[in-house]
Amino acid sequence: MGTIVSRIDALLAACGCVEQSVRRLYLETRLFQTGIGGLLVTLARMLQSELLALLPALQSFDHDLLKRRLLVFLPNPAQEPTSLTSYQTLFNMVAARVEMAWHPVLGTPLQDCLLEALLADDNLFHRKAEVAPLEAIGPGLIDAYEGLLAAYSTLLHFDAEGIMTTYQAINREIIDDLRRRELLLEEALEVQPLPRLQALQPCPLADHRFSPAERAAAALKSRLLEGPTGLELAAALAAFFSTYSRSELRNYLAFRWVADGRGGRLLGVHNFQDVRFEHLVGYEERFHELIRNTSAFLAGKEANNVLLYGARGTGKSSSVRALLNGFHEHGLRMIEIDKEQIFELHEIIACVRDRKERFIIFCDDLSFESDDTSYKPLKVVLDGSLEARAGNVLFYATSNTKDLVKRPRLREGLEWSEERAILDEKRGIDDRFGLKIHFTIPDQALSHRMVLKHAELRGLRTPTAELLRQFRIWCGMNNHDQPSGRSARDFITWFMNQCAGDGESPPPFRHEA
Fold first, then answer.
1. Cα–Cα distance list, 399 to 132, 282, 436, 438 (Å)
2. Among residues of the chain, what percentage have pLDDT more than 90?
3. What is the mean pLDDT of the chain?
4. What is the pLDDT of residues 369-404, one digit of tens each?
5. Helix, strand or coil for residue 29?
6. Strand 358-363 vs strand 254-260: parallel, antiparallel, or unpaired?
7. How many other β-carbons are positioned within 10 Å of the β-carbon of residue 408?
8. How confident is the model at residue 502 (pLDDT cuts 50, 70, 90)?
């Protein structure tokens, strides 16, 4: 039994070292109050407390006590959570993050999760670094932060899987010893194999477009894995937070608002639609208006909320999305919402109000029936209330009509003043948009330009006259009485599939002047 006792002593020493680091981090920052850090705290404490309780039993070799302790180690739904079930919970959380990770995973899966937790931590040093250079941070705060990084490094190299494997090996030796002595007869008492943290694998990232923040975070995580280097590492972290801020939201360019049991949260869009203004044809003057307004917004100047309205399929939504591809390196981010989420606008804005980035909240195809009152929260957000409008948020919407609220059918016998009041109430939402951009129905010449542009983008090489003839036939077959950019794109997709279906390569494209 002496070998087992010495191995337990080694485990106690490792867990005790980790627990000291955890206690300091837990008391002096918010890093490990929830999430993965909380599970590590639980795991370290349970290992230490249970092994400490086991140690006297091993030394005295009191078999009844030893048997009771073994029952605590092994999974039993009727008992309190054990260190083994804590490890399983830890594994589940790490697996959920790593297996669905859309960033480069550095170090072990557990290390990467802890590194991501550090870069998302909301502590005083990180908050100060967002708004001030390192020279403006108090020396006392910098010294404290360097000490925390040293404690964090200890935790970063905590081998939870290795410790649990050793822990199980000790259990297995004890069980075998008791069975040899015929002191333990229950066949069910078996040590189950552990799920392996090291065997987790992230998503393939070959086609993923990494943001500047993701690339900078990967470089910083590599430095953290090398170990603490005092002031140099603190300075590198301060520079990172000064540029990219401390939230996980920095890793995404676009977001959706998702309701859950706790209210709602912003969910990052991994692969945002690659739409660019050079892909769009025919509305260059409208694009310039949109770009000028957005450029002023990004420069910290006054800018307007925007309503893009007009004919269907003319590129209203695409032009808004093209803004993100053109301006994301200047700090532009986008949050796409549905009309039904208008009621949650205050909560959405609260998530991003004080962030460094600038956000466009985008609602596509926005309109309201005459008896629908859900537009009222939007009026308040656009025009402000007692709380000033967030300086880093604008609202862009698209609609097929300039009047977002359909005109109500008025009752007979209304006074002119009553009729005017009702109409003003319904039209009030339209007036909150300082910039309204009209997309008109394209004429034949413009629709033909759109077809040729989409053919060029897809690498299609077909004589112009033949391509436009096929386009007219396709519009008639599919009842496209109002050709647009969308119908031009859909036609090119159909045409290329037709060529592929005939077993032929698309014929060469010659753009005839």
1. 42, 19, 11, 10
2. 15
3. 79
4. 766 666 777 777 776 554 567 889 999 999 988 777
5. coil
6. unpaired
7. 14
8. low
